[in-house]
Specification:
Blueprint: E1 2-3, E2 10-11, H1 28-31, E3 39-42, E4 53-56, H2 81-86, H3 88-96, H4 98-108, H5 111-130, H6 139-164
Antiparallel strand pairs: 1-2, 3-4
Amino acid sequence: MKVCQNCGNQVEDSVIFCTNCGVEIKSAEQQAPQSAQPVMQQAPQQNAQQGAPVFVNAQQAPYQQPIVYNDPKDHTNEFDANDIADNKLFGAACYLFEIFGIVIALLVNTPYTRFHAKNAIRYDIALLLCFIPCIIPLLGWLVTGIACLVLFVIKIIAIVWSLQGKAKELPIISDIGFLK
């Protein structure tokens, strides 16, 4: 007697298709190479309701190489950990105190503070460029206000990143070509 792999019904050896579900029943020679594939077995029917399919001998997919995302704008790994730990406040001072903070950071003269000083200079140039549309009444004032609001958010992000010890290029500002 053969057993249907789909529904579990027992059928005679000479039968090719299951009399209960109609699935082709394969002989023992044909079943051997497929033993590595997941076999689906349904629970017995109760009150004419079909049970949920149950997978028997289901194998987990092989593991893949983990995909590591490397942010090209994150330069934190290029700096010494001690340099970052010692100069977080000087990096934040570049953004908080504008030109005065940039001068202080450049006086400290470490690679981490120079990075944030360069970013702060880019920020200041972008802020000055935002005031150009202010010449146009009404619409220019609206554009200037929105641009300054966006730059204010970028400034807060820069301060937080510098206090966290991250050396990332500023969003939007780093994409402007002539500020590189």
